[in-house]
Specification:
Strand order of the largest sheet: 3-2-1-4
CATH class: Alpha Beta
Order of helices and strands: HEEEHEH
Structural class: alpha+beta
CATH topology: Nucleotidyltransferase, domain 5
Organism: Hasllibacter halocynthiae
Number of helices: 3
Keywords: Ribonucleoprotein, Ribosomal protein, RNA-binding, rRNA-binding
Largest sheet: 4 strands, mixed
Number of strands: 4
CATH architecture: 2-Layer Sandwich
InterPro entries: Ribosomal_L18 (IPR057268), Ribosomal_uL18_bac-type (IPR004389), Ribosomal_uL18_bac/plant/anim (IPR005484)
Distance between the termini: 37 Å
GO molecular function, one term: structural constituent of ribosome
Radius of gyration: 14 Å
Function: This is one of the proteins that bind and probably mediate the attachment of the 5S RNA into the large ribosomal subunit, where it forms part of the central protuberance.
Length: 119
């Protein structure tokens, strides 16, 4: 039976998340979601089950013009790093979901690291 593209994505996402749960040690998870037009990220505390901070390319105050690009992802990464510091978080695990660590996802992670978030 051939798996659809969506099935393969879901399997990849679960595989990544299960590996993170084994080594998380109570650290929050930096979860990324990328659509064809936008990118968003959440800092999630899995122990309490709540979102500590979030950022998205849809936000007007980030000043993202052409939302579907690497520069927009870098701005979102910088914003989440600032908001994580404000929430008192210095370390997190990067949950790329089922997305490949390349392009916009990589740019977001690099900008978050440059902003002072250890991932």
């Amino acid at each position: 039976m051939a798996n659809s593209k969506r099935d393969l994505f879901l399997k990849r996402r679960l595989r990544v998340r299960n590996k993170l749960r084994k080594v998380a040690a109570g650290r929050p998870r930096l979860s990324v979601h990328r659509s064809s037009k936008n990118i968003s990220v959440q800092l999630i505390d899995d122990v309490e089950g709540r979102t500590l901070a979030s950022a998205s390319s849809l936000e007007k105050d980030l000043g993202v013009v052409g939302r579907n690009n690497v520069e927009a992802a870098a701005k979102v990464g910088s914003a989440i790093a600032e908001r994580a510091k404000a929430a008192g978080v210095e370390e997190a695990y990067f949950d790329r979901g089922g997305f490949l660590y390349h392009g916009k996802v990589k740019a977001l992670a690099d900008a978050a690291r440059e902003g002072g978030l250890k991932i």
